[in-house]
Amino acid sequence: MSKKPARQDWRPFRSDERPVERFSQHGRYVLALAYANTYHVGMSSLALHRVYELVHQRPEWSCQRFFSDGDGMPLSVESDEPLGSFGAIAFSISFEEDYVNFLRMLERAGIPGRRSERTRGDSLVIVGGSCAMINPLPLSEFVDVFALGAAENVLPELLGALEDEPDREAVIERLADRPGFYVPERHRPEVDGDLPKIQKLELTEEQMRAPGNLPTTAIVTPHTEFSDKFLIEMSRGCPEKCLYCWATFGMGRFRWHSTEYILESLARARGVTDRLGFIATAVGDHPEIERILQEAKALGFRSSVSSIRIPAVTGGVLSALRESGDRSITLAPETGSDELRIKLNKPIPNSLLLDKVRAIFRHGFTQLKLYFIIGLPDESLADVQAILDLGARCRDLMLEELAPTGKIGSIHLGTNVLIPKPYTGWQRVAVADPAELKEKIALLKKGAAELPNVTLGSMSVRQAIWQTYISRAGSEAAEMLELAASGETVASLLRRFRERVRPEVFEPMPGRLRWHFMRAGRVPVEPALAGRVG
Predict the structure, then answer these.
(1) Burial annotation 278-309 (CB, 10 A radius, 16+ → b, else e)
(2) Interatomic CA distance for residues 386 and 392, integer angstroms
(3) Same structural domain for residues 59 and 125?
(4) 314 and 255 together in one domain
(5) How many domains does the chain fold into?
(6) 147 by DSSP, 3-state: which?
(7) CA distances from 75 to 12, 46, 84, 380, 480 (A)
(8) Most CB atoms closer than 10 Å: which of 156, 170, 307, 393?
């Protein structure tokens, strides 16, 4: 007897949610807002919160959230409405590995996966998020419209089209002629060659400093990676230009939100939590980070930050975080050796890093996370051993500084394999030889096991190959993604499609890069389009 598929019961989640602002769920127009992963992961995404808030702030609009939890028809968190009943579904996809979840959610909702198989009665499938702006081509056979850019800039045009046009075909036709939208049915860069480049509409520096454009948490909940925290975006982009990093190239020049608006947002948090999370690619580089942390503490908040750039670790920042109750700091040295770090365009010496690590433990922090990348161009086994040596030196500093307190701390060495992403300085390079990568991972595992109070996290070589392929592939990836969604393992797919995958992953990419049909663009009208939404 077959077991009936389990439906996600959202009632416990709803009862634990604390909305920062109460929105009506009875708008004239309703958008299905879907995240292609679990509630826990999706509600940890500040981008999802931002879209949710902006949609509700538009007159006559509301939206309902969907996640990949459970089996059977996906149901909304707000009212258990079925996903397949909505005329427009906007997916937010931040990670390439969620492409499979995206396809499975469409299948569970009874929506044809291939856009060519959809008819007038089917939902319009829209995708935004980081993956859309990195390389939308692998999903181009499945998506009707890609939204390229900040929600503040693309949502007004998208929602306006959904309000005005009579059917899905008319919406597609209208958005195809607007900046910030890639419509695979009309734009065919792989077939038609050189086309006028499609603009990606990121927030400008002027918009970042304008009122109403500060992304913060819309709903506080314990069921996220940032349990019960009110998240606040500090900045976008990064002052560094590390060759492996999409954020520093794809998100534009480093720019930050107004200190006054950040501090004003704390009043919204007060009614739902006393915990804050300040997040960004370069949180510590906000010019007034110390003032923000100190004022948050004075108001009774406990604060934490996402990864801080090594040069931005200062005594003032550490003191403010420590006094707020934070005990963990995350840094990203990327390599263990100065020489290799210089080659990836991050000229920060180990001497500076170790000074910062000493300061971290001297201020009473007990947990340090250090992130590294292996498989870098010109990397040797000696460079990998240098990761262990650096970890050991950090451990020595931890023991030296914490011994007088009677506490024992911990250090985590997170290691990932280089994924040469589009729009990075290394977008053309090949992934390192799998046998060499396995040898390096084995070296790290053996060495970390010999260091008490030091743990190691590592990425599988197979997953690195798969992620590289689906981040740089074209529309031909559709077949493999469909098979993955049907249950075929990554190992099986990489064996079966070896001849297709190898040149895309293990050989340098020559000539014109397929994803370069998009370009960064400014907002086409002034003032900020967010005014239409908020």
Answers:
(1) bbbbbbbbbebbbebbbbbbeeebbbbbbbbb
(2) 10
(3) yes
(4) yes
(5) 2
(6) strand
(7) 14, 21, 9, 50, 27
(8) 156
